[in-house]
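ENTRY TYPE: paired fold submission
RECORD: A
CONTENT: sequence, then structure tokens
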Amino acid sequence: MSIKFIADLHLRPEQPEMVQLFLRFLHDQSLDNQLEALYILGDLFEAWIGDDFVPPGVDTVMAALSQLTGNGIPVYFMHGNRDFLVGDEFSARTGCQLLPEYHVVDLYGTPTLLMHGDLLCTDDVDYMKFRNMVRNPLWQQDFLSKAVTERIAIAQSARKESQQKTQQLANDIMDVNQDTVVHTMAKWQVPQLIHGHTHRPNTHELIVSGKPAKRIVLGDWYEQGSVLVCDRQGCELKSLSAA
């Protein structure tokens, strides 16, 4: 038996090959008799402006997710910094179960904290301020009240600004803050953390509350499909070819 984790697919109409890769991945999961659950730890989509607007081509993704959950495979969805407006309607249409921004699971005997990962990047002060703003229910209510065309324009502008800032920021600022990682794991009393967001797949050994701990980082899907496969023997990061 196994449980799989993915994050940072950033699916968008402009990259249909990534959509097709994900559809093939979902099809393969439906044939995997050993799969117990699939966790999507944020940024499944490059942008999500509300459940009332499905980007072109994404309806196939929702249908494939619905088919997988309909076949009895639980799929859990955690919001990322790009698709934090995914809501109950998306959940109803796909069968995906929405998770809070901190979620602890018993991963074959190991208490494991799941996160998207952006909350660990506390050195990026401007982003943390932006995050606090857009996660405010009042801001979201106001944004969702706007016309779809206006929301699309706002999202495109925010994406462009984000790309410009990413090019300007130092790499260490965009990565996790180690003190925040240790504090978070200690707070949730877990020896293992799985997250995405930074696009830096790796397994890190560290010490939390005087004991050995592990932080596993998922890769993105810009050029490959990064999948973490966990079973009773442990966890292994794998890549899917886009070919």
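RECORD: B
CONTENT: sequence, then structure tokens
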Amino acid sequence: MALVDREGLEALSTRHLGEQLGCEAMSIYHHFPNKAHLMDALVDLMLAEAKVKLLPEWGWLERLRRSAHGFRAMALTHPKFFPYFAVHRLNTPAGVAFIDGIIGILREAGFSDRDAATHFRTIGYYLTGAALDETAGYAKGPSAAEPVSDETIAANFRNLAAAGPFFQPAHFLATFETGLEMLLAGIERAHRGRGKHGSKP
């Protein structure tokens, strides 16, 4: 992971990893049969870093909140690996356990299996999108061949010009927390309204 953090995912090969470790590439295959197994190990490492200590006395909403912040912190710690992690199916043992734990928070709160699945995926949409935006998204993505200049934006697109300063990294955390709290408030409303529309725990 240190190699990926430093040089990017494209630099990861068994040959280059062997050079960094001071061993032959073939030695790595004694621990990881192929590169796919090595990638799975990196995914599991990310999941271990995403875990946060959830105290029993915290309610389900606080446990979701802390878990969400742990996920974001993990992504920001390893931004060069996160785009791969974001599309991994998380079907390793650690990945399945991670998913099971989050769904468990929702089921223990009394949500039906269907609602627990829906809320889990909704949270996943938000966290993955937010983390991708912060690690590899809009500001770091492809640009137009002839981008609109800042001067043109200031003169002709005043709404964007006014909001522009708040798109900067200094505001990322506040934006993340605003979106997360809106999402959690919606899930909490659904929790209070359980049973009104045929949804049973």
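NOTES ON RECORD B: Residues 44-192 form a domain with the Tetracycline Repressor; domain 2 fold (CATH 1.10.357.10). Residues 197-201 have pLDDT under 50 and may be disordered.
STATUS: closed
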